[in-house]
UniProtKB/TrEMBL annotation:
GO terms for biological process: double-strand break repair via homologous recombination; meiotic cell cycle. It holds the Pfam family MCM_lid. It catalyses: ATP + H2O = ADP + phosphate + H(+). GO terms for molecular function: ATP binding; hydrolase activity; single-stranded DNA binding; single-stranded DNA helicase activity. GO terms for cellular component: MCM complex; nucleus. PROSITE patterns: MCM_2 (PS50051). It is found in: Nucleus. Its main location: nucleus. The lineage of its organism: Eukaryota, Viridiplantae, Streptophyta, Embryophyta, Tracheophyta. This is Probable DNA helicase MCM8. Coiled coil: none annotated. Belongs to the MCM family.
Amino acid sequence: MHGANVESIITKMKQPPLMVDRCDIGNTWPIYFPEVDLSFQDWKYILISKLVCFFATPRGQHVVSQVKDEDGIFSLSVDFQHLKKICDLEYLYAKLEEHPKEALLCMGAAVHKVMLAQEDEGTLEDGVKINIRLHNGPEPTIALRNLKAAYIDRLVSVRGTVVKVSTVRPLVVRMAFQCAGCGADITRLFPDGKFSPPPTCAMRCCKSRTFTPIRSTAQPIDFQKIRLQELLKSENHEEGRVPRTVECELTEDLVDACIPGDVVTVTGIIRQINNYTDIGGGKSKSKFQGLYYLYLEAISIKNSKSQPVPEDSQYSDSDGRVTEMLDLFSFSPRDLEFIVKFSEEYGSDIFRQIVQSICPSIYGHELVKAGITLALFGGVRKHSSDQNKVPVRGDIHVIIVGDPGLGKSQLLQAAAAVSPRGIYVCGNATTNAGLTVAVVKDRLTNDYAFEAGAVVLADCGLCCIDEFDKMSAEHQALLEAMEQQCVSVAKAGLLASLSARTSILAAANPAGGHYNRAKTVNENLKMSAALLSRFDLVFILLDKPDELQDKRVSEHIMSLHSKHREHFSVAKRLCRASQADREIDVRARSGSLISRLRLDPKKDREFVPLPVPLLRKYIAYARSYVFPRMSRSAAEILQNFYLKLRDHNTSADGTPITARQLESLVRLAEARARVDLREEITEQDALDAVEIMKESLYDKYLDEHGVVDFGRSGGMSQQKEAKRFLNALNKQSELDEKDCFSIAEIYSLADRIGLRVPDIDTFVDNLNSVGFLIKKGPRTYQIQASIHSQYTRWATPTRNSKASAALSLLLFLSCVAFKACCLHSIPLMHFVDHFNNFLTSPLLAQLALKEARPALSQPPPWVSQRSVLIQELNNLMASNGPVSPLVADDGAQDLDMGKII
């Protein structure tokens, strides 16, 4: 608060009380209670008089001075707890419990009276009301699941996520009607928006029941409906229970206060409505006419994104709203004391404590848990130097790929429980609209409204998607949400962009059941390269047989199922001791980071994981108030590592190492500094980020031979290798003039072309199963796609005489077609290319039959040898006159019939 504001407040406090006649409220009473006659014995009149006395005091005048005027709508935001400290008026608080709507109207009337008594009387127009927006109400925030019939007509505060927002529409609250009999005008009020014309004319001489609405006298207000969904956390989650929702009605200055995905606190009055009588007009004869629904008439709404950051912060917007704020928790002094003590006690060991506290039931996988931890804390969201302020995402995306049964789903569920705003969905039961945003139609108003999906609901949080490989149709919907951090919608005439600043934590199983190192990550997951490149970290978990590792895991599992805590402690020590004695395994290549993350069997005998609520508070505090800045030494480490990756990336099949990897390194380093609540990224933070990135790259580009190949992200797949092998085998078949090859010849050819498959025998069996190779004998295969095999199939005589005659005729027609190609100077290579397709082309067959019609009376004899066929072709060519030399595509040379066959 600035010094000028403090001085103005002190000056107002020293002012003498305002002289207001508390009994003269006749000019404000009709505005707030138009259908109630003024009575001095009415409790509302008594309450207004008491409130006028309070608001006339210096403290009360300070409250009145905060009245806001927004386009002619006057409102006063009142903190109930603050009002209770400065106003000792128990009568008001009792009436707020009994009659909250009328008590708030009395407060508005008192403020109105005081403002009229002040010097600036012209600020209020005739008939304008002052809306009291009471927040931080008398009762604490209650859960949506507890909203039952006992709360009807009571003032409550609820907190939840906005899942649906309707369009803003005008709601008529007052309109005049003209009697069709006498022409008198009758003004009617529509409480709760229910249209109710006069039943009969009020004139004595006229009892007409027909009225015409005077639409020019209609007094509309802005109206909007939203739907809140409760915030589910692990400590209060009930299995099998559908999350509770409640409809909220916003009016006047409360509209457009939130969008789908926002976390809001709504203070209002619980109302009831009957869909059959109140909305349907009472004409329905349904047996559910006695069934009512609860909704919330909003008095005030507080958005979690509305708390501003300090003005001198580089992360604040020009309009004072936050760019990254996770105000999902109110930190009590006890919470802040825990955060301070935890950071002071563990110091540089905080990272290990948090990593070991995430899903302790899963043994090992320290680096995977470290990546999940960094995704929970996230990087810093900031703007680029462009004038349009294109946002640069700070959220970290992680995908875990591996064999079944390695605990991927448990890791995701644990991460969703720890996150201050975590959502867990399963891919096989998720649609495109359920993942991003849906447009639904209101059955009453026929308006379209947005319903937020999982990614939008997890805004500024974590969205865990299990079975990611089962939702290939929805992968394209995540491209924009993962990089641009928003979801653009263009449906049913609605165009909007919703915030989706969430970290994606996905788990997927390989397409073949088990991960195949011979295939790339894209081929194992059937995922596009564009989507895979958006993940900052890709971890691959393999179920490899390891006697020592299997023993440690089995001991850990048995300790979890043990009923005695002593056995659990002993088993845990055995696991840790065996872990310390184990030799350096494959993952020890990451060096010191793994050794620092693992628990020491001597020092950590009594290690207790951090409770989930405390860990959630710590993460929320770090994301809300810690914004690390890059130091020069840390930037050099990240830049040098990125340049080394680019130097090693010499693959001709693509460049998988792009600038996205450098941005990922920056985000990882920022998250690592956030874990320790540091404002500056140190060299150790950069080194830890580099080691975790090395682990991800090692898993992503490791082939079946244990060699890191940076071309594997978008390189040759097994399908391309099969095509390359068959082309080479076809060429070899033409050179050797045979179509059968032994397995030794196949091995030799595979070595010569550098075939990249894990097992040649399995590769050949796969080609045999799909029909490209046919097994002709023990370790002998015939290729089906070669010209030689097709010629052999045509030229070999069969036992069926009719089939032989047909083949003979077809062969003769092909010879005539060849002669026609020669006469018309068709290039030789074109004929060779289309020779195999000749018999399947009806047009060529008709042309050949027309050319050969004179010679059909004497068809050529059946030929079964190559030399005889050559002779027949030469005789056929000679009998039709001289033929000019044929020029091929690769150079001028005379036609040689022997080479053609």
